[in-house]
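User: Predict the full complex structure for these chains.
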Amino acid sequence: MPLQIRGMILALAMVAITPAISAEPEFVIQIKNHQFIPAELRIPADVKVQIVVDNQDDTAEEFESYSLNREKHVPPKSRITLYIGPLAAGRYVYQGEDRADGVVALGVIEAR
Amino acid sequence: MAHCCLTNSGLAHSGRCAANREQRASTEFVIGRATCHALVGMALLLGTERALAVNAGDYLFTPTVTQGEREIDLYGGTGSSGDKTRMESNAGLGFGYGVTQRWFTELDIAYRWQSPVGTGLDAFEWENIIQIGEPGQWPVDIGMLCNIEKPYEASRNSPQTEGTSIKFGPLLQKDIGKIEVNFNLLLTHFFQSSQFSSTQFGYQSQIKYRYSPPLEVGIQAFGRLSSGGQTWAAYPTQVLRVGPVVLGRLRLPQERSLSYNVGFLMGTTQHSPDQTLRIQVEYEF
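Assistant: Here is the predicted structure of the two-chain assembly.
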């Protein structure tokens, strides 16, 4: 195998196995009764952040946002972590699962 | 082939001298010889062109996985003939499922039409994508592909085709604002390679502008570092197709959606089809 390919694979493996040194500010969004709490979250603009989505319901939910380019399944009674940004100042809409009863949880992340 | 030539030779040397029969025999000989030459030419074409087929239905792998998402994946493409390639169309149908937050798997059945061979079941594929880390966690999002392909002819123990192959490699993605960049480095290993190098390096790349969910535009590239017996080859004998792509996703009620992407690729080397039209439609539910 050529040296360049070996080097590339090694570099990728190192990136993959290196634990994330998370210096990013952390924010929490809870899911209760199919609602995001808070419905509007303010984060600093131009800074990468971690957002923990804590689903306290007994049903699975989803965090989906085209503007943030994220789509994540959130199993019942569990937490997931999203890495967002750095974002330009503005409002970024996200939504939950499109349920059979037509109710969809909505939320906004405002970077400022 | 040999049978054809001997038959015509026999006609030419028959002892029957009736003029009409001679004329008929002569005509048959001429037609037969032309047919024979055509068949010899076809045999030489098939026998000496040791170029791996270029799959017109190739599509871009992405490193992110959505747990619980099921999809029916229909894809295909048609590639025109090039200097060193024959016209070929491919189509495939797959069913995929996001098993966990990190593992997506899909089973595919692929068909191929190739000039002058015809249409046939081409291969069975088992595609697996492992998402490493979370999107945005590192400077580049990383996934790994592991795709096992069993050619249909190999399933029938035909000696004329390559055997089972495994394709694997890193899938990389980077978001820069509304621009999304993908680059995949794919290594394919053939377990029963008779004509070609047992290991082939390929790559895929895409740059797209995320204008809106139903309409995104970009450029795709599909390449392979060799078209035949070598793992690496000089650029003119590599395969590279580049061209524009239009993509989008239409939301349907109850968490269902329809995604599409259509690309028109132009070959940049003699071993690439001059043009390839490729289409992919995914129904996600």
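The longest strand of chain A covers residues 26-32.
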